[in-house]
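Session log. Operator J.P. requested a structure for one protein chain; no other inputs attached. Running the standard single-chain path with token output.
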Amino acid sequence: MKVEYDEDTCIGMFQCVAEWDAFEKDTSKGKAVLDGSEEVEGGLFVREVPEDAELDAKFAARSCPVDAITIYDDDGEQLIP
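Structure written below.
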């Protein structure tokens, strides 16, 4: 499973931070940060989701009010949102 995070879309509500500890607050930017991710293009970050964190990652994606977080299965199929 993979998570994709669009920092440019993020509005800093930080619900994802409450759902999955891979997300952290960056109060200087007013955005969340996806720990352990790499930027694949301007403002778009990607990382693998450990098996024991899959449920938390899904909750983080569902809690985002602007759909800045997308979850993909191992075949690249979009699961959330």
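Operator note: The domain at 2-80 is CATH 3.30.70.20 (Alpha-Beta Plaits).
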